[in-house]
Amino acid sequence: MIEDFQVPDEFFGAFRRLVRRMPLELQRDEAFLQSLVMYLKLGGEKLARHRIEVEKAEFVTAFTIVKRQPPVAPNEAESADNDDTRDDQDQEDEMDDDEGEVADIDPDTIAT
pTM score > 0.85 for this model? Predict the structure, then answer.
């Protein structure tokens, strides 16, 4: 535990405060204690506390993936995409016809 582990004097007070907050299994884990000293050196007591909180948190390990769309056969998907593309191009062509371009305007109708 703490007595067997080497902690620099400048971090010893913060290290003791942190160890009191940790679960017993973490207090006995030498690799975790070494990483805790590293967090103290790099980011101070606040970062080390955050690391302890993350370690205490329980994460869901089992989950189920739900597919919301039924699978589409490859041939149907390709033909549906081609039809959508043709429809989109037709709509764009119709919109272009409605807008008119400078070349379509009769020069006699321009007032100066």
Answer: no
